[in-house]
């Protein structure tokens, strides 16, 4: 009489891979929940989420709210002198107040109300904005040694894709074009500037100054033929 054969335990690579994929999925899910919290929850709860991220990941950009307009700002770790100059310049022209800044960050960000730069309904930049661009471009042209500074100007809201595909310039597009032309006219090299759109209120324009290694490759987007 033969004894009952016991089943042998074998490793299942597919199961291990599935567990890793599930862990990645849960991590991504947590990340999107964080984004949703920042964009959809009430202000107090969103601030708590941001503070938690700042404490857990101090190398990330720290944001703060100043003034009655909810202007956010963060500082640069590399080239503190540039960061100080940017802060003083924005405060001089737009009456910002100092905010807590991260010990380390690679982006300097300021969000301004659209009306600060465009007091009317069109694309005419305010005299204050025009006066601001020359010293702003001067700072960007003189980065810390071994680095270069690039700026992104981002309009809140989403782009009107049908209009863009049809070659129609919307008021938001006209404003971003006016800002780009004004900065270039003030002396900023075009390869240090990009414009676009960002999630959030259409009544906000974000300035994002990024410090990069001087030899970091630039990215160029070009239309391809049919």
From TrEMBL:
The chain crosses the membrane at residues 20-38. One of its GO terms (cellular component) is membrane. Its main location: membrane. The keyword Transmembrane helix applies. It holds the Pfam family MotB_plug. InterPro entries: MotB-like_N_dom. Residues 26-57 form the Motility protein B-like N-terminal domain. It is found in: Membrane. Keywords: Membrane, Transmembrane, Transmembrane helix. It comes from the Bacteria. This is Motility protein B-like N-terminal domain-containing protein.
